[in-house]
Amino acid sequence: MTWVCPHCKRTFASEAQFHSHDVVDLEGHFAGRPPELGAAFNKLVASLPSDVRLDPLKTAIILAARTTFSFVIVRAARLSVGIFLDRPLDSPRVSKVDQISSRKIANVVEVYGPGDIDHELRSWLLEAYRLRSGPPVADSGSERSSPQAGHALVAPTADGARRARRRA
Ligand SMILES: [Zn+2]
Question: What stretch of H or E contains 39?
Fold first, then answer.
């Protein structure tokens, strides 16, 4: 069973899952940013299974399997990539570790360009994807969601830049 929020039209594994309704256009996140960041994001998404859902919120782009396994925050000159695992990563690449709950730990890795989307980062993302794509673990009674639409890749455009200026 999946549930579509009537306010923001995002799809969730279960009803009343806490989330933000504040959805924005994916390209808006990359408007006015260095093109390496859009290229890095495209490479990151392309390296993941095709059933990954992208939910662009105002502050972050959410990557979800059955539930959220990663988020990307587009900053001025880098992407902060959050990876939800059940363990802290012991690596100098991890800039921040946030214990969300006993089995959910956000490991944040900074990405400056496509070169940072390497085998190691991909293996962490796939580990997070697998943790959040299997059958629900005790805390939720819902079934696995069906695959959603495929990848919406970012192509920074003049249109995106116009939208960003309007918002500013
Ligand atoms: Zn909503």
Answer: helix 35-46
